[in-house]
Amino acid sequence: MPVDPTLSSDTAIFVEAIAGDGGTHDASAEWRLSPDIQLTGPTSGLDRADLDVDNTIKVTVHRKADGTLPAHTYGVAVDLFVGNPVPEPRPDDRASTVLIQSGFIDLSDLAPGSTAVNTIVWQPHSSTPGAAPDGRGQKCLIARCYPDALTPTASSFFLPDDPHVARHNITVGPPPDDGGGDGGGTSEPPGWTGLPNENHHIPHH
Q1: Distant-in-sequence, close-in-space partners of 48: CB < 8 Å, separation ≥ 6
Q2: For residues 131 and 198, what is the distance between their CA atoms, to the nearest angstrom?
Q3: Domain total for the chain?
Q4: Is the Cβ–Cβ distance between 23 and 88 less than 8 Å?
């Protein structure tokens, strides 16, 4: 998939799909566990969100040393979505994704060649149906980070190619056999990478 044309004037801001990729995302590699999106449940730990309590999500944003920002850029917008792990989630479809929060990193905190972290607190609710984008079960976090002078396309994330966007698969709530109800489907351990019709896992080290 091509990159977002509305963000193409920016060559400075990026998030990594794979550690060290510098914003050049390889669609043939495992791009669904971005190291720049880290969720930690207070009880369940890495990649598992606990229900009805605050979960911490850290989004790391990079700025290239030699990149060019569009005029009138004062900071970087950090939009964090949660969604169902479908092949092409959409930011404008509430059956696909839900915006958790829009954060902001001041440009003075993101010098050329550096990184900055935006911390977001998210509380998923046990009352939300598992089939909902922010319900229980297999879900994904999608971070879209871009200069505030630009407006991204509303209808597509342009995953996995766009350097401004990354995804990290998570599990929300306990598995069904741990008292989690219907879970909206099967649950997977932290680090699962498969889409609903795939059975592929990569363990965390």
Answers
A1: 39, 41, 170, 171, 172, 190
A2: 18
A3: 1
A4: no
Q: What is the 3-state secondary structure (H, E, C) of the chain?
A: CCCCHHHCCCCCEECCCCCCCCCCCCCCCCCCECCCEEEEECCCEECEECCCCCEEEEEEEEECCCCCCCCCCCEEEEEEEEECCCCCCCCCCCCCEEEEEEEEEEHHHCCCCCEEEEEEEECCCCCCCCCCCCCCEEEEEEEEEEECCCCCCCCCCCCCCCCCEEEEEEEECCCHHHCCCCCCCCCCCCCECCCCCCCCECCCC
Interval 90-101: pLDDT, tens? 999 999 999 999
Q: Is the dihedral of CA 150, 151, 155, 159 positive or negative?
A: positive
CATH number of the domain within which 25 lies = 2.60.40.10
Domain assignment present for 198: no
Range of the domain at 134: 5-175
Say what the pTM is.
Answer: 0.87
d(CA 139, CA 194): 11
Instruction: Please report whether residue 79 resides in a domain.
Output: yes
Phi, psi of 178 (to 5 degrees): -105, 20
Cα-based distances in Å from 10 to 6, 7, 147, 199:
9, 6, 7, 36
Residue 205 lies in a domain: no
| pLDDT band (50, 70, 90) for residue 2 | confident
